[in-house]
Amino acid sequence: MSLDAFEGAAQSLGMPTGRRHLLRGAAAALVAPLAGCAAAGHSGPAIDKAPAPGRTHVVESNSKTVTVGLLDPKAAPAATIDSGDIVSYPNTWVNWANEPRYGMSFAEREPIRRRYPNGPYSNIGPVIIRDAEPGDLVEIRTVRARPIEWAWNSAPANVGAIPEDFDKPYLKYFKFDSDRKSVEFTPGIRLELHPGQGLFATQPPGDKAVSGILNGAYGGKLGLHELVEGTALFLPVFHPGGRLWTGNSHAVQGDGMVNQTAMETAMEDLRIQYVLHKKVTAGLPLAETPTHWIGVGFGKTLDDALVNALRGMLDWVSAALSMDRADVYALFSLAGSFRATKFARQRGSVYNEVPAQTMHAMLPKNILSAQLAEKLSQSLRKQA
Fold first, then answer.
1. What stretch or stretches form a coiled coil here (predicted)?
2. Which residues is 139 bridged to in the sheet?
């Protein structure tokens, strides 16, 4: 429902209709599906119920709230919130400071790309959560993710999984219908949209700015296909306040993202609920969807990334369920699945950093009893 439609409904019921009231009411209406429905394209049990939404904070993208390329620990807060509050990002930027325009040729875009050696992502933030301290965990719940009307996929020379096979750069644009449900790739091929953010991060450890291209336990460039509306991501806190960032909006992405890019876009309506869990730790980024628990691992090779994802999931699940680690190892061999999140063999880049290879381990929820499912969920959730 648009804000205009929401306002009309509110007026008919005698409800307050100021912008703050409208955003809070809309947020409440949107958070409910997180607890009660599956995300588009998914089916299965709902994820754990979110706390009732608190205030809604609006963070516009502008020169004060967006840092291109870097996650900067010295950046001024874009918003300071309480646990359970929602942040509405009404106009996120496309990569490279929102400079690309629909229909630009690759040659026209190339000078823009080269102006940002620290990375392409228009990272918005940081959001500060009151009382967040190192040793805590932040649950990042995607409430709403509606992309703008256009996107692109591109592959410069020397990038992707098989750079030696392509000697010319590639660039393809897409226009979405108003319902943002699907898009034509070519005549006869249609892709379902599953929009979400490719980058979520708490501020990485240390006092130096870190490229958003990189990733680790703090998140960063995850590019996880499953992080759509109705899902949650758990990241540890390394700095007071957490200092949360997001960026790199996607409309469509395949596992592996083999030509280097997804269907790159921006969001005209992005709403995230941040929930603080005190004194809870996680050794790797963990995600929950209506159907799976997911752990993300990184490494120099896909082999290393798979091993790190598996070990992290074994550590968490065995401790949370009081199961022998060997039993959990066997369980993943029988019922788990492992997917390439991002795989590339770059031969050159305009950026200063090279991202790790990424794998994600998936544990299906439908193998768990209600009691074990609750134990696994609650092992991460201790509200402030």
1. none
2. 234, 275
Q: How far is CA 111 from CA 12, 15, 22, 47, 108, in A?
A: 52, 51, 41, 44, 7
DSSP-derived secondary structure for 162-174: -GGG--S-EEEEE
Q: Which residue is listed with tokens 């256009």? A: 150
Residue 158 backbone zone (phi > 0: left; psi -120 to 50: alpha; other: beta): left
| Length of the chain (residues) | 384
Q: Which amino acid is at 236?
A: P
State the Cα–Cα distance between residues 348 and 118, nearest whole angstrom.
15
- The amino acid present at 268, given as its one-letter code, is E
Ramachandran angles phi, psi of 23, nearest 5°: -65, -40
CA-based nearest residue to 363, from 171, 253, 153, 323: 323
Q: Is the dihedral of CA 241, 242, 248, 253 positive or negative?
A: negative
pTM as predicted: 0.89
Q: What is the pLDDT of residues 8-19, one digit of tens each?
A: 444 433 444 444
| The pairing of beta strand 56-58 with beta strand 86-89 | parallel
pLDDT interval class at 46 (50, 70, 90) = low
What domains can you pick out in the chain, each with its CATH number?
A: 3-288 (2.60.120.580)
